[in-house]
Design goal:
Length: 353
């Protein structure tokens, strides 16, 4: 956490234990710390805990004796995150809202606010590490969140601090207790960025509308019915029905979908069907500092917490796109992120198409 641009830091305080401990660590290290909570209000039916989270963030700031600010980004969140998600789902893509939120909200709007108000750094409770404008995986591999941060630029990372990236989650809990933080035992948030646990299928039904369609095998035979093709992501094995006489008793996974025809394709083999590929095209690429070299071996993941996969970049356009060739077939979902690594360093990534 060495800082050379000054000591004034704004910490994005979500009200959870990770951002609270990040705040306490920076304060303990001698930084001039101020807390910033981003208010995002969601409809009551979602079960959103944002009001409770805001109170918890304020309580932590009071315990630590630091200034506390609240920025209402409800409308911007709907515009940048929610509407982008809905637009993608409508055409059959499966977006990653955490990637969008980090790019446009935390390291977009909030970062700009930080610069405008003359802070030296922005800090968050992400499990990641940064050094000299580069992004690295966290010590706790199970909690590592560098996958969600691939859109950041090197210039922004130079002014970013991730205080808990060098700790395991269990140690973060102990540090919270040591500092007497009121959220030390609070459960980790799950689900949509800022909104929390959300029934995504119910959310899509309310905002897009769905209708039932056919479940197919990889030969195009009808096996059963589903509740709407846009509701399913490759790899899922629940939420659809099949005729017991037309399939084996083994679990069936979604291996493809056609939104225009409103069909999903299932198989007992996850890497069966059109969605399983060794060669993956990505667009809207962002390379944090060094552009990956064609022909060199790297590691990559196409979903959060997936074990890193060996791959080679076979084509790379400096501006917008790349082609990644994996050693093993990958079950991919259009709209998700492919994130590339060189050992522990996150090089950047792109959107799967």
């Amino acid at each position: 956490m060495k800082g050379y641009l000054g000591k004034k830091v704004c910490v994005a305080m979500s009200g959870g234990v990770d951002s609270s401990v990040s705040t306490a660590l920076l304060l303990d290290a001698g930084y001039d710390v101020e807390g910033v909570h981003l208010r995002i209000r969601a409809p009551e039916w979602t079960g959103c805990t944002s009001a409770e989270d805001e109170r918890d963030a304020a309580r932590v700031a009071a315990v630590l004796g630091i200034p506390f600010h609240v920025l209402d980004y409800t409308d911007k969140y709907k515009e940048y995150v929610i509407q982008t998600m809905l637009d993608d789902y409508k055409v059959g893509r499966t977006p990653n809202p955490d990637v969008i939120c980090n790019r446009d909200i935390k390291f977009g709007l909030l970062y700009d606010w930080m610069v405008k108000n003359e802070y030296a750094y922005i800090a968050t409770g992400h499990y990641s590490n940064t050094s000299e404008g580069r992004l690295f995986r966290a010590k706790d591999e199970n909690k590592d969140q560098s996958y969600f941060l691939w859109t950041l630029s090197s210039a922004k990372l130079i002014r970013t601090l991730f205080p808990i990236g060098v700790y395991d989650k269990k140690d973060v809990r102990l540090i919270a207790e040591k500092f007497g933080l009121p959220v030390a035992k609070k459960k980790d948030s799950q689900g949509l960025c800022f909104v929390g646990k959300l029934n995504m299928k119910e959310f899509l039904k309310r905002n897009i509308g769905t209708k039932e369609g056919n479940v197919l095998d990889t030969n195009g035979n009808i096996l059963g019915r589903h509740k709407g093709a846009i509701l399913y992501t490759e790899g899922e094995r629940r939420g659809f029905t099949v005729n017991p006489k037309s399939s084996s008793p083994a679990p069936l996974f979604v291996v493809g979908k056609n939104v225009l025809k409103n069909t999903i394709t299932v198989s007992g083999d996850k890497v069966d069907g059109d969605s399983s590929r060794k060669i993956v095209n990505i667009v809207n690429t962002n390379w944090i500092l060094d552009m990956p070299k064609v022909g060199e071996h790297y590691l990559a993941r196409v979903r959060y917490r997936q074990p890193l996969q060996r791959c080679v970049v076979s084509q790379n356009s400096e501006e917008t796109s790349a082609v990644v060739h994996f050693e093993a077939p990958q079950l991919i979902s259009s709209g998700q992120s492919l994130v590339l690594y060189s050992r522990d360093e996150c090089m950047g990534g792109g959107i799967i198409c």
